[in-house]
Design goal:
There is one protein chain. By secondary structure, the protein is of the alpha+beta class. The protein has two domains: about 220 residues, Up-down Bundle (Multidrug efflux transporter AcrB transmembrane fold); about 70 residues, Alpha-Beta Plaits. The termini are far apart.
């Protein structure tokens, strides 16, 4: 631990530095690979929308020792077309989700489940979601997402600068796209809890990015008044100075979310938690990556195109060349002039 804290101090003082900005092509390539994988998952598998978005019926049976196979056999015996989603909730509940059903089909599924698990029909919790309700939920979810992005852009543009807002939104879109792609690859259902998880990771990703951007603004506030470093160099120093903090906060956030995902949903079988916890776990990890490896390099690229920053880079590079060539010139001139002739002293008698 002491070695890690010592490394953080060296990174903050600039004694040790990781070139995040100079290696941006490498980080962009890694992100492009994950984006292509996400695009492939979305194209080939697509998202498994829950009944809240596409409409359908949900049947929850409370029975100790109930199994998914028994529920599947009961549903198949009714002859209802389409694929049913069957999952356990805790240790004594089974939830069956189907497509849109009419009244006769709905009653048939209830009777089959009641007969299979030896429970009363009235004890089965039945929920029916119409297609129009699903479309309304989808529309509101999209409104919430786009409204969030617009508010974030306006805030960052006013609190920092427009180019920081552009870089932050690019990182957020990067996070959401990769998270949605991995979600499609895993095959979990998209529920309102999933949308809540997506909005949560957007906020966390921006929180980490804003911390880095605040340090960048501090390091570059009067950068054009001197010729010590370019904008990219000052940005890279800011990322190194906030690196340990980003890692620590991300680990602290991932530990409880990971326990919900792997212990709650995996070991305890709490199926209602896995939608939210998976979105949070993937999004937190990807958001931490983008706040270090994506947002600062994009910002540096945008700012380095400005005439003032290009002139600063020329001054910094020219100063480095002059410092390098100053000593050889002095040596050459010294060799050319040769040693100075000292006047001879006369001996006194």
């Amino acid at each position: 631990m002491s070695k890690f804290s010592g490394l953080g101090g060296r990174l903050y003082r600039g004694e040790t530095s990781i070139d995040f900005i100079g290696n941006r092509r490498r980080w962009y390539s890694i992100s492009a690979l994950f984006i292509l994988l996400s695009l492939g998952a979305l194209t080939l598998q697509g998202l498994h929308l829950g009944i809240e978005f596409k409409g359908g019926s949900s049947f929850t049976v409370t029975k100790s020792g109930a199994s998914v196979d028994d529920a599947r056999v009961a549903v198949e015996s009714t002859g209802i077309p389409g694929e049913s989603i069957i999952q356990t909730i805790g240790s004594d509940k089974i939830r069956v989700q189907t497509g849109a059903l009419d009244t006769a089909q709905n009653n048939a599924v209830q009777d089959a489940l009641a007969a299979k698990f030896s429970v009363a029909v009235e004890s089965i919790d039945t929920q029916i979601v119409g297609p129009s309700w699903g479309k309304e939920i989808t529309r509101k979810a999209l409104y919430g997402l786009f409204g969030f992005l617009i508010c974030v852009m306006l805030y960052l543009a006013m609190a920092f600068e427009p180019k920081m807002a552009v870089a932050a939104i690019a990182a957020v879109i990067h996070d959401v796209f990769i998270t949605v792609g991995i979600y499609a690859l895993v095959g979990f259902d998209v529920t309102p809890a999933t949308v809540i998880g997506f909005l949560t990771i957007l906020g966390y990703s921006l929180y980490d990015t804003v911390v880095v951007f605040d340090k960048i603004r501090e390091n570059t506030r009067t950068i054009t008044a001197s010729s010590k470093s370019t904008y990219s160099q000052a940005t890279n120093l800011a990322v190194n100075q906030t690196l340990v903090r980003s890692i620590n906060t991300s680990l602290i956030a991932l530990l409880p979310v990971g326990s919900i995902l792997f212990v709650g949903a995996g070991l305890l079988g709490a199926g209602t938690l896995k939608d939210l916890s998976l979105a949070l776990f993937i999004g937190l990890a990807v958001g931490t990556y983008s706040s270090i490896f994506i947002a600062p390099p994009v910002l540096a690229q945008l700012r380095e195109k400005e005439p003032a920053m290009q002139a600063l880079a020329k001054r910094v590079n020219g100063r480095g060349t002059a410092t390098t060539t100053a000593t050889p010139v002095a040596v050459v001139e010294g060799e050319r002039r040769g040693p100075r002739n000292q006047p001879k002293r006369k001996n006194r008698k």
